[in-house]
Design a protein that fits this description.
285 residues, alpha/beta, 7-stranded parallel β-sheet, 37% helix
């Protein structure tokens, strides 16, 4: 991968959640090229090993740690393993997250007849599943909060340490149909700002990246028809994006490198940066 610019992360230990996914994976690749030593946290041993093999084949240093990011005990064990093998965490990238079908409605609007809909497949506000909502909030919010709680212990009082959370443009402009995901990402944005203030006296910066819409293998079935044309929902997205296109995953690299670079962003703290082609700035008129 060709980097837009390079920063010196030689010797830095970067702990990454969600690093085996599409967006997280490209961030990991960029950090490796800048000399960082990577600790990948995840639940799938196979996915972790695949990414580690890829990193090592390209001359990088990485370890994989099986962990449940929603368990303080599991995270504590992971932290100790990382300390033993790589040293203290310098940068924490909280990339884990996602949605769940049971936290989403099937239509954009509620209509009066939905109150007496019978047995059809319509999912409205009243049909949303409590466990589905809880799953999304736990994965996104607690999955960011708990790793911060654990790994900040190694950052306090050390120079050049920072946390990068992953929010979403949903946090600025909630999308229809996905109330749980939009709410959880808004919580991450708020937590990022809160934590940046809370840690400001111990030298740890906290910022977030808010990706917009990126066309990847994971979502292409939702955004593209079999003939390659945009689906109706994809057309709505493009119509609301001033730059009139989806993002490329490599376009998320520059903002990460800026935020992790102490030389470039040492006075940047508590910001949530949208990378969305102007989507959240456009009112539609």
């Amino acid at each position: 991968m060709k980097l837009p610019f390079k920063v010196d992360l030689s010797g830095k230990v970067v702990v990454v959640t969600g690093g085996t996914g599409v967006l997280g994976g490209i961030w990991v690749d960029a950090l490796v090229q800048c000399g960082a030593r990577i600790a990948l946290l995840g639940r799938s041993k196979e996915k972790l090993q695949y990414k580690i093999d890829e990193i090592e084949a390209n001359g990088g240093t990485a370890i994989g740690v099986e962990v449940d990011i929603l368990s303080r005990e599991s995270l504590s064990k992971a932290r100790q393993e990382i300390l033993d093998k790589l040293g203290p965490c310098d940068i924490l990238l909280n990339g884990a997250g996602g949605n769940h079908p049971r936290g989403s409605t099937s239509r954009e609007y509620l209509y009066p007849e939905d109150l007496n809909k019978g047995d059809d497949d319509t999912v409205s506000l009243f049909d949303l599943d409590e466990e589905g909502i809880r799953y999304v909030f736990d994965l996104n919010y607690l999955g960011t909060f708990l790793p911060c709680q654990e790994f900040v212990k190694d950052m306090v009082g050390r120079e050049g340490c920072s946390i990068i959370n992953v929010s979403s443009m949903n946090a600025f402009t909630p999308l229809t149909k996905i109330p749980a995901y939009s709410g959880a990402k808004a919580a991450i944005s708020n937590f990022t700002r809160w934590l940046s203030v809370h840690l400001s006296k111990v030298g740890v910066r906290v910022n977030a990246i808010a990706p917009g819409f990126f066309l990847t293998n994971q979502n292409k079935e939702l955004l593209l028809n079999e003939d390659g044309e945009y689906t109706e929902r994809a057309k709505k997205i493009i119509d609301k994006t001033p730059m009139e296109r989806f993002g490329r995953v490599d376009e998320l690299v520059g903002v990460l490198l800026f935020l992790v670079s102490e030389e470039a962003s040492s006075f940047v703290n508590g910001v949530v940066i949208p990378v969305d082609g102007g989507f959240c700035a456009y009112s539609g008129v």
